[in-house]
Amino acid sequence: MTSIEDFTSQYGLVRKIDAFGYLDYLREHPEAPRKHGKIVLVTADTPLKASRGEGKTTTTIALIDALRARGIDATAVLRQPSMGITAAGSKGGASGGGKASLTHPELIDWGLCGEMAAIAAAQNLLVSFAEKAVDEGRLDTILVPRVSEVPSRSLRSITVDAGKNNVAEKVVLTPTSELMQIVVLSRSMDELGERVAAMIAGTKDGQPVKFGEFIDLWRITNMLADAVKPALTETVNGSPVYVHGGPFANVSIGIPTLVSVEMACALHDVVVVEAGYGTDAGAQKWLDIACREYGAQWPSAAVVVTRASTWRDDPELAWRYPFHVDRLEKLDIPAFPLINLWEGEDDQITALRDTAAKLEFRDPIIGNLYRDGGEGFGDQLDAFVSVLERASMPSARDSHKGMPLIENVKWVAENAYGVPADRVKFKDGFLDSLAAATDLCKEAGISLDDLALVAVKSPATMTDNDRAPEAERTVTLKKVEVHAGAGLVHVNLTTSLTTPMPKIV
Amino acid sequence: MTSIEDFTSQYGLVRKIDAFGYLDYLREHPEAPRKHGKIVLVTADTPLKASRGEGKTTTTIALIDALRARGIDATAVLRQPSMGITAAGSKGGASGGGKASLTHPELIDWGLCGEMAAIAAAQNLLVSFAEKAVDEGRLDTILVPRVSEVPSRSLRSITVDAGKNNVAEKVVLTPTSELMQIVVLSRSMDELGERVAAMIAGTKDGQPVKFGEFIDLWRITNMLADAVKPALTETVNGSPVYVHGGPFANVSIGIPTLVSVEMACALHDVVVVEAGYGTDAGAQKWLDIACREYGAQWPSAAVVVTRASTWRDDPELAWRYPFHVDRLEKLDIPAFPLINLWEGEDDQITALRDTAAKLEFRDPIIGNLYRDGGEGFGDQLDAFVSVLERASMPSARDSHKGMPLIENVKWVAENAYGVPADRVKFKDGFLDSLAAATDLCKEAGISLDDLALVAVKSPATMTDNDRAPEAERTVTLKKVEVHAGAGLVHVNLTTSLTTPMPKIV
């Protein structure tokens, strides 16, 4: 009998799975056995700064270890961290810690099986082909950026063909690229190829030119043959963990690949999906992009992670965590607070439970995840497990396709950031940028309003000033950028800087 | 009992071997069984142009298939082709063709297991760390180039930090990088780390500064953990082929990794090593760099590939092939001509044998390798096999360490290109470049004359003008560049352009 093993190959210490092939097989064989796993979204409070994680990956790992210890077939799906960031020492890695770790964190953190590198090479090859198209007179402006696997502040602004044509470019990190988004959103190699073909390479006499008009698509798909396969690794306690796709959550879509999650749902009963940064970032994107626009499954529960110290460290920002929990509950997603204790914080448990009760949260799950892993809170999961057991398969939610872009942004500002529509402002130049993007889409034969909205923003803020009183908080729109191949439109929000190319610190 | 299997892991359709670990094991266990394989160098006529191959990889594959069909335990060691070049369509791949092919050419040609990509990321991270060192005041000039996996002509000359400091840079292809040379030449991770530490990052107030003075070496070695493992694949006839390392032969050292060849020699009786471009390029580098300076084994025989049409297509250049065969014979390397026929050339065999007899060559091996593979010439290998059977283990040859650089270049010009010392000329600026390199080395505590010489030149020419009469041929030296970590000094020769960053064609 055909099984997942037939789609699985060993790659050193990890295994890689032909998810496209397996999901095709399931579609073609309705009688083949499969599970219908429910999705648990692990999200977090908005971090006080981008480099201060609340512990989502650690939570995800501890949670599935705890669920499996209770006899539940749980798994997790993680994004692949950016090797360049880890290697540069800007971040310690993204594979949990202590007792809540993966068996081979060095593999996950240091390039896995070259997936990110292959995406980088393919995106850069697209730029080279665009450059050739300029030489041949097919293009006069290139709209896709080169990418780098490693951070380098001096690549934020470069001039290529220096001394001759002096063309201004910016280089961005691979996890911010449109090709990474396409890998995350595509459900087959054909779809991936079609999306690459639909990418706008640049313009000729002001008219958009798509890659499909001048490149051999097979060259790009060949480069990605292994990159589209999710990796299977495991926690130190033997729980299976899939790792696939690595878009940043602040400047991109912040979620693992759709096929890795769908495959996990066919193989396990509970699938814990980690989405980047706060609920306003990765979770908003899972719900409003993946679920509403790309057919992903609505979560049956959420775990909202925070640290015991976050509220105390910055009381002015303490409004954000309850806002996130409330928002998820209003969306029919039972939201379980999880407080990730650090060393020396065990004596705060009673006070934390009191606070949670006052805020009318569900009873929080509290543990020192680094020290104790899933064992530290396994006995606190009764309510959580009961919610999952009683949940029926969630229905699909309304798409925003066709909603005018500004209305869509206002909807997100109100629902995900708590800022009403009349306090969404336009920065000088925004309307010009919107008009240009609208025209570009029209000339490319698509409607801007049919694209899914990606909010591009600082990971540490939801509004122009999160410290302002609620009635004064605003969101300012800065510019619009079309990723036609991925089917996305980026809108830059707030006054905060984005970091498509961080400096090594 | 410990065997090579204990050092081998599956990576998808190929296997990867911890060659460092296996060779360490053999060193630590003198009693452990091993073979003492003899090396056959596959080299070729100097190509008429860089993109016109004579068929070295095809020959290498056909040859081992033919030898194994005769019961001889033969294997081959190939370099990894540059994926960017293949993907861009500038070259059709480098994994043989027709009946003389690898089972999964797409893997070899399209990035293998990410080895080249990891080297690219590591070299680029070194540049980022150097940039940070500039910010911190430790460096004022950076001497290591960024690399790209894909060709892009506009990266030949770029300005980074544009609009602020406007720093001029060039970007080169990964196979031209010093880090690739270090991977090829290192016999352990410790040696690799020491060589990275010895790389000159740049200068501060004119004084060289090495990477070892300011970076965490483990970050670089972590990135290369998988890249240092040779891949094992096979021909369509089941013969084992190791693929590892991919430096270009014109602008770098053109040979596979030393450890992959040494491992192959411990596991097989005959090890066919393919070295890039003509005998004046990759073969010269295997002999004069790998063997003389890095302890590699001297070849017991050579196969010198040409096409039936090469001499006819350009009679002015017909002197080069006999020159190469003679040179190898004078070095005590029995040199077997191999003529790789194309479709419709079978009727030329008698004429080719006559020509070879007139030139006093060994009787040539002739076949249509694409059509017939090794079967096409297996019965012509008696003399070749007999030479290998009678050969004793070759002794080590003299090192040129300490020979003044100019004398060393003149020795190469005379021996490998047939140009006597008095016709080696200096281009304006060469002596300044030499003096600067000499000073840089002195200040770095090394002697320029202790570095191994890498001739950087066009793959299609050996002299300033190969069409000139023999008595008028010259070699002009253009500039000197130190790769202190790899232990190499590059000297650019002749008037031909080098191509560290080709254009997509």
UniProtKB/TrEMBL annotation, chains A, B:
One of its GO terms (biological process) is tetrahydrofolate interconversion. One of its GO terms (molecular function) is ATP binding. Keywords: ATP-binding, Ligase, Nucleotide-binding, One-carbon metabolism. Pathway: One-carbon metabolism; tetrahydrofolate interconversion. PROSITE patterns: FTHFS_1. InterPro entries: Formate_THF_ligase (IPR000559), Formate_THF_ligase_CS (IPR020628), P-loop_NTPase (IPR027417). It is an enzyme of class 6 (ligase). This is formate--tetrahydrofolate ligase. It comes from Bifidobacterium leontopitheci.
